[in-house]
Amino acid sequence: MNQVTLQSAGIGMTSERTRRRLIEQVREMGVTDQRVLDIMLELPRHVFIDEALANRAYDNISLPIGFGQTISQPYTVGLMTQTLFNKPRAKVLEIGTGCGYQTAVLAPLCEEVISVERILKLHRRARDLLYDLRIRNIRFRHGDGFIGMREHAPFDGILAAAVSENVPEDLLDQLAENGRIVMPVGRAAHQVLIVVDKTSTGFTQHEVEAVRFVPRIAGLG
Ligand code: SAH
After folding, report:
1. Cα of 71 from ligand 1 centre, angstroms
2. How high does pLDDT run on average in the chain?
3. For residue 188, is it left (φ>0), alpha (ψ between -120 and 50) or beta?
4. SS3 readout for 43-90
5. Which domains does the chain carry?
6. Active site residue: 72, 115, 164, 200, which one?
7. At a CB cut-off of 8 Å and minimum separation 6, what does 123 contact?
8. What number does the ligand 1 atom closest to the CA of 145 have?
9. Nearest atom, ligand 1, residue 48 CA
10. 167: helix, coil or strand?
């Protein structure tokens, strides 16, 4: 057996305990929504990342997924999901599919996820992986997610995994009444996770906490 095979065999044997330990850490950091914790406990994280990094899959850290991008830290995935689902949200737009881990956490909580990824190879890889995992209520799209997806709007929830300097008008336009956006705003080392709620009288905004995300990639041009 080569080293990689040994490592993945190890993951297979210890996953139950290591997964529980990770979920316990995520809970202690403030993710208390039991539905979110249960989904994350069930979902194998190591299948979303390169085999060479599989021994770190259940550490509470972000990891490289190629093309200069990262799979988000499990705590951050839990926090964003719990923040979005403060109430039921049938149709959700996800910006930045990446490896598809966050997408797979969102899917059981809503009727439909529209997930947009700017990098074609990541888009295809996540689409194929989630198909293999038999998660079927997701439409995968390749493109610039920050302009939204007008043909599927309005959205009850919008979640972005790449940081933008502000909340794009397009996303505000495509939000349903009582809808919520959860996204990082700012730049480089000065980013904050914000929540935008659309009420019958307009938009309200509040900050959740400081975060660190990869930057938004510009449109296809
Ligand atoms: N939740 C994902 C996060 C990946 S990192 C995961 O855990 O794997 C952020 C992702 O946003 C990257 O895959 C990046 O390619 C993508 N991205 C950046 N700019 C984008 C844009 N304008 N439209 C859609 N996706 C974008």
Report:
1. 9
2. 93
3. left
4. CCCHHHCCHHHHHHCCCCCCEEEECCEEECCHHHHHHHHHHHCCCCCC
5. 14-210 (3.40.50.150)
6. 72
7. 97, 117, 140, 141, 142
8. 23
9. 8
10. coil
Query: What confidence tens digit (pLDDT) does each residue in 33-79 have?
Result: 999 999 999 999 999 999 999 999 999 999 999 999 999 999 999 99
Ligand 1 atom with the shortest distance to the CA of 96: 11
Ligand 1: residue of 95, 116, 123 to mutate (most ligand atoms within 8 A of CB) is 95
- pLDDT, tens only, 113-163: 999 999 999 999 999 999 999 999 999 999 999 999 999 999 999 999 999
Q: Is 200 a catalytic residue?
A: no
Q: In whole angstroms, what is the distance from residue 15 CA to residue 12 CA?
A: 5
What number of H helices and E strands is found in the chain?
A: 6, 9
What's the CA gap between 38 and 180, in Å, rounded?
A: 23
User: Which spans in 157-198 are helix H?
Assistant: 169-173
Mutate which of 80, 164, 217 to test ligand 1's pocket (most atoms within 8 Å of Cβ)? 217
Q: Which residues line ligand 1 (CB under 6 A)?
A: 65, 69-72, 95-96, 98-99, 101-102, 116-119, 122, 144-146, 161-162, 214, 216-217
What is residue 118's DSSP assignment? S
